[in-house]
Amino acid sequence: MKRREFLQYTIPAVSIPLLLGGMSLTAFGRSRMLNNIGAVAANDRVLVLIQLNGGNDGLNTVIPLDQYAALTVARSNILIDAAKVLKLTAATGLHPSMTGLQTMYTAGKLAVVQGVSYPSPNLSHFRATDIWLTGSDSNKYLSTGWAGRYLNEEFASYPTGYPNTTMPDPLAIQIGSVVSPGFQGPAVSMGMAITDPNSTYLLPGGSDTPPNTPAGHELTFVRQIAQQTQAYSSGIKAAAAKGKNKSVLYPSAGQNLLADQLKIVAQLIAGGLKTKIYMVNLGGFDTHSAQVSTSGSTDTGTHATLLGKLSAAIFAFQDDLTLLGIDDRVVGMTFSEFGRRIKSNASFGTDHGTAAPVFLFGSNANGGILGSNPSIPSNAGTGDNLSMQFDYRSLYVTLLKNWFGASPSMLANAITSYASTPVPAVSLIKPSAALDVSGQSLAPVSTVLEQNYPNPFNPATQIQFSLASSGYVVLSVCNVNGREVARLVDRHLEAGQHSIQWNAAGLPSGAYFYTLQAGSFRQVRKLMLMK
Question: Rounded to 10 degrees, what is the CA torsion of 305, 311, 316, 317?
Answer without folding.
Answer: 120
